[in-house]
Each structure stands twice: as C-alpha cells, then as structure tokens.
Amino acid sequence: MKILLLGDYSNVHNTLAEGLKALGHECVVASTGDFWKNYPRDIDLKRDFGLKGTFSFVWRMMKALPKMRGYDIVQLINPIFLELKAERLAPFYNYLRKHNRKIVMGAFGMDYYWAQVNTDIRPLRYSDFNIGETIRHDEPAELFRNDVIGTAKETLCKYVAKDCDAIVAGLYEYWATYNAVPELKDKMTFIPFPIKPKEKKTDEAFKIPSKVSLFIGISPERHSYKGTDILLKAAEAVKENYPDKVKINIVEGVPFAQYQKIMEENDIILDQIYSYTPSMNSLEAMSKGIIDIGGGEPENYEILGEDHLRPIINVQPNYESCYHEIEQIVLHPERIPELKRQSIEYIEKHHDYIKVAKQYEELYAKLL
Questions:
Q1: Same domain, 188 and 241
Q2: Which end of the chain is less congested by CB atoms within 10 angstroms, N or C?
Q3: SS3 state at 270
Q4: Cα separations (Å) of 236 from 124, 215, 324?
Q5: Domain with 259 in it: what CATH number?
Q6: Which pTM value belongs to this model?
Q7: What integer pLDDT is reported at residue 28 of this predicted model?
C-alpha cells in the first residue's frame, strides 16, 4: 500500500511509518516535527513566525501538495493537520479527499470532541476537562475548550469526522470519548500507540537503586493542563522529607533526541494525572525500563486484554494520591526491579511498532 501520514504528535506517525515500511509498504510522513521536539519526517511542514515564515510555509506547501496525491490511505493526526487556521483547512482536506482513495482520522486528543464530550457527556471519571461531575475551569482547560468549541475548529472537526472513512483512537480515553458520540461509533477502531523496542537491558539495570531518580519533562503551556505541576509539587515534598532517598531531574523544552538521553538516566518518569493510560512519553520511557507514575487505570489493561502485567503506578488526579504513590516507591525501592521488567514486557507485548503496524495494515486493507 501507499500511505501518507499527515501531521505528528509525540512521534506517533514517524514510529508507525517505520513499522509500515518494515512490512513492505510505501509510507511518507509530512509534519512539522511537532515543533521544538523535531521528530523525523519526509516532508517538512514546519511554519516559522513572521511574514517571512508565512511566505516560506506557503511556498513549501505548494511544492508539497502534488506529493500528497495518489495514496491508498491518508491518515490525519488531527482534524487540524496543518499549521493553518481551521477555516482555511477545509479546501486542503477536500483536495486530499479528491486525490487519494481513503482518509483515516486520528482520535489522539486535542480536538473538538475531546473537549466537548468530556465537558458535557463525561464518559470518563476524570479527564483534561472534568473531575467526576465537576468541570475543570483552570486556565489551560478553559483556553483549550474556548479554542475548539463554538469555533471554526468545531466545524472542521465535525466535517472531517463525518466525511472520513475511519477514526482510530490510540488510548482508551480517546476510544471511550468518541464512542460516546452515536454517529461516530461505527467508524471507531482502537489501535495502541507504536513504540520501537530497545536493546535488552543487562542485569545491572535492574538493581535496587540506592537513591530513587525521578524524571519529569515540563511543557510550560501544558504544565497544569496535564497535571505535571501537581506531580512535581508532590515529588519535591517527598524529596524534602527524604533527601537521602530521592533525586529529581527536570527537563524543559529540549529536542526529542536530547530529551531521550536525559530520560534514560532515571528510574521513574512522572507524567500525567488526568489520563487513564500512559502517553507516548511514558510508553517510550517504559520501553527503556523506566517506571511510569501516571495513568494506569483498570480500563487501560482491559482494552489491551492484559490480565497479568501491572507495571504502571497509577495515581488519582489529586496531590494526596501523587504524594502517597511517590513516597511508597521511594520507601520501598525493592519494588523497582520487577516493575522495570514488567514495563519492558508490557511494551513488547502491546506496543511493539511492528505489531501495531500490522493492526493498521489490517484496518487499511478493510477500507480498501
């Protein structure tokens, strides 16, 4: 098959492309590289600021459009798949629809349905937009909600979701959210995010650490939105109480390659507290034998059919839960070797990029 993956979040499409290529398919990634993260891509769609950046982007888009024709599958990372205003994107979508066979839309969060469903219908106990029946009104949640509800982004998202041939969710919470929309249920497929396995660890990597090393990556614009502010506050309190047992490594705004190198030196990653599942960030860490403190609700394991492995230290979306779980692993570091082993096994079993690519291959074949 000939496949175009348009846009990228957290290296999802680039990793999927590697898996699809390994299966013998022709696959092209066109993206911004997810901005400062600078993920690899075949067609660079990065847009710089200012008038010069706009002209450069328009020129590169005009050159790229003829290269976006004749594909069996075009998969969009999001209804907002280019760095253009939503009201200007519909003609580009229609162009892709006209000149390619099938369109697949990614349900990977950060769109109208993600905000609207979890504000109004609330199929999840908690999310980026609700805690139980209480709506989150912190500034990042409000800004995002106002950006996508009642705007051109809502119009575009509804249009693409209705018109596309299939919608793929990469995490349980995205699957549950879209399945709460009756007119979209028949289009929905769940396929886990793809991760490339890493080199086998030596026994040295599974030793009980004398000092537990916590890693946290901070995106300033998403710090409170994803709850890393609460995780960091809890981690710092644990460190203050047990200074000889724990250390914290904080990373902010570095390219993906550098980020990965820093991450590898740690025992535990602190990620998200409003998620039921590990993000791509956490999954990548787990593939390296790093334990995730974040989202590991029962639904995450159920949708994967996993009834044995429990590598994730699950936290509830509040300070007390975060503090308790961090404190417990710091006080009981003997748990760390087994959780590291389970983390690696979990990724190999459910997220191996070739296994995931085969699931996409099956979906694409059905559409064609």
A1: no
A2: C
A3: strand
A4: 29, 12, 13
A5: 3.40.50.2000
A6: 0.93
A7: 96
